[in-house]
Amino acid sequence: MDFFEDWPGYFEVVVNWSDRLLEGLWTTIQLTIYGGALAFVIAVALGLMAGSPSLWLRAPARILIEFFRGISLVVLLFLLMYVLPQLWMRNPDLPLRDLVYNTFLLGVLALGINYGAYGAEAVRASLTTVPSGQWEATTALSMSWVHKMRRVIFPQAWALMLPSLTNLWVHLLKGSAIAYIIPHVSDFTAALNQLRRPTDIWFSHAFIGLVIYFLLALILTLFMQALEARAKHKLGRGPSLREVLSPAPKAAPPDAAGPDPKTLTGPGGGPKQPASGAGAHPGGFA
Amino acid sequence: MPTPTDTPVIEFVDVEKRFGDNVVLKDLNFSVARGERVTLIGPSGSGKTTILRLVMTLEELTGGYIYIDGQPLTHENRDGKRVPVSKKQQKKLRTRIGMVFQQFNLFPNMTVLENIIEAPVHVLGQSKKDAITKAHSLLEQVGLPDKANAHPTSLSGGQQQRVAIARALAMDPEILLLDEVTSALDPEVVGDVLNILRQVADTTNVTMLIVTHEMAFARDVSHKVMMFDGGRVVEEGHPDKIFTSPEHERTQRFLSAVLGDQ
Questions:
Q1: A156–B97 CB contact, under 8 Å
Q2: Domain harbouring B66, CATH code
Q3: What CATH number should be reported for the domain holding residue A133?
Q4: DSSP class of B205
Q5: Measured between alpha carbons, how far is A214 from B260 in angstroms, rounded to an integer?
Q6: Total structural domains in chain B?
Q7: What is the domain extent for residue A166?
Q8: The pTM is what?
């Protein structure tokens, strides 16, 4: 089959194009990080507003969340790229011209508000999941709303909202591929697409694309899982991040006597116990 | 501010509390004097806990007035019209009130010491140094001098409740509300927690409003016991009288059921 015999050729082309691909990859990473950061800020702001007891904060937040959640990202991008600049074309004196013509910034903005609206729901929902006793304790201690949010409620909600935010961020990463329709912004998908046209190696282009997006998503997920472990540890649930990251035998390397009983009673000691009676009490014989 | 000694610290006037159509408290009038310890007893659903929660502003008052040191807590009577008081006034009055909950409600994202000093430092504006010194002496008082840096989740229920008592006392409350503080504890540690509260009652002048099923404790510390049923006061009086020769049939029935268990 030609298809497989051509493998070396595919990769030769990819290597030749590696500069463009890496540039596109870098753009995708930037879109993901800046878009994610903006989405996070919007999510927290709208989520707190939507969870506030004041109708004057809750109502606008609800409208914004429902609106930005409901609109299509593609249509929003078209609007920002092709409709919004028309206003400035017709009225060249309007301020912020550079911002409106900066298509990368508009891409970040579109990703940020679209995914931020989803994130706001995650933030609001996790705030309501903090037990009512915690809210009551803050009232009994006369804490102001800002105080209780900052010091008591949000730190607890944080651990609850992280899994949802991880999901959304991975969605945003993959959603950033839509940036290939943005003029003057060549993200990873756009770079792959350019590679396809002159070279006719559709298979490797799609294959590389899948693998790279998967790896990026994996990195995001691992990072967020570390954040989650840290947040849970701070609430007294689960091990600390250091304990999670370090493999068990390396837990106490400087102390020569220390690791021995630990490793024995740990992975090694457990299953061996029934076989040898002495193994059950390694500490006693040492 | 100077208040005449006969001004009640807590005063309920025509208090009514409804949850939707369900009337929990109706035409409730009573007052608690400074330094007085009042225990509310009665079957569950009789509105005892609701009274504490109204004083702590955890529930919205649907009718009548509550006065703290003679000042309206939620609404005031202005020429016969019921007008809500400012948030500022409510907050000022609320800092004089402390509450200990059935479920402790310690903040899991803070250590024991941080739990205790959080509000004194950030609400009352005490210096961190003073607050820490005071927190250590309170931990000593509740028998947990070595747990300052412990995590609430690493403590037993009894220990958590003792920290919660220290946290409430750190605010120097004039009024301490105790809402079934031993109901969630193992029977064998109930005595420890009650002894600490007895000691607080003996050594301070704090006004206490207590909801409990521990009748021996109620008898020890209370100046007055109020028996509730169906949102109304059935009978009230000195604990010796209520517990030995209750007049009302409903009180007799309740006490024989509760005490008969033991």
A1: no
A2: 3.40.50.300
A3: 1.10.3720.10
A4: -
A5: 68
A6: 1
A7: 21-87+96-195+217-237
A8: 0.82
